[in-house]
Amino acid sequence: MKGWTGKILFVDLTNGRTEEQPLDPKIARDYIGGRGLGIHYLNARVDPRCDPLSPENLLVMATGPLTGTGAPTGARYMVTTKSPLTGALTCANSGGFFPTELKRSGFDAVVFKGRSTAPVYLWICDGKAELRSAAGVWGKNTHETTAAVVAETDPKARVACIGPAGERQVRFAAIINDRHRAAGRSGVGAVMGAKNLKAVAVRGTGRVALADP
Q: Listing from the earlier edge strand, what are the strands of the sheet with 7-12?
């Protein structure tokens, strides 16, 4: 599939496991872009009656087929979840360097489920993913967290994270990437906090295949 990496990363925070699955070409066609992918996985895998801050809710970080291609306005990603602010499905989006780096790291989307027993962050580097302890950055603001995670991973890593508001599950908390960019709608940061997920750090050297540059 052109414009896609063809891989989705599923992260089970409860069990501390990650699993790579192929992106179904039919889903990619029927649910176009990062928002479409997020809505698909929420509709397919989340009970609409669940508490948004419960482990049963999903948090999906997804790119689209233009992300990482150099197309104008293409450097964006979507965060889709059930909103703790509204109780409905929501989608917050952000730009910056993080979305392209996520795509180049080898995945079109990351789907988080469950809740970690202790604070963690996800580190993805060229198709390899692992959960690491975030005990050292829990309680820190987003600038401090970004600096610490970059120091632990790779100088060229890009980070999306939450600060104290997300940790305390403030219902309008944002996710901040690249220090100054915000996925700010409907409390997506509170869902990260409820899952004990402090940050996502990505580094990738891959390129997106194009049908017609």
A: 17-22, 7-12, 109-113, 59-62, 77-82, 89-94
CA dihedral (97, 100, 105, 111) in degrees, to 10, reads 100
Q: Per the structure block, which two tokens stand in for 207?
A: 């390129």
- Radius of gyration for the alpha carbons in the chain, expressed in angstroms and rounded: 15
Per-residue pLDDT in tens (0 to 9) along the chain, 213 residues: 899 999 999 999 999 999 999 999 999 999 989 999 999 999 999 999 999 999 999 999 999 999 999 898 889 999 999 999 999 999 999 999 999 999 999 999 999 999 999 999 999 999 999 999 999 999 999 999 999 999 999 999 999 999 999 999 999 999 999 999 999 999 999 999 999 999 999 999 999 999 988
CA distance 107 to 127: 7
DSSP conformation letters of 102-127? HHHTT-SEEEEES--SS-EEEEEETT
Q: Which bin fits 2, alpha (ψ -120 to 50), beta or left (φ > 0)? A: beta
Cα–Cα distance between 31 and 72 in angstroms, integer? Answer: 21
Separation between Cα atoms, residue 139 and residue 164, nearest integer Å: 6
The model's pTM: 0.96
Strand order in the sheet with 128-133: 128-133, 120-125, 197-203, 158-161, 175-177, 181-183
Residue pair 14/55 in contact by the 8 Å Cβ criterion? yes
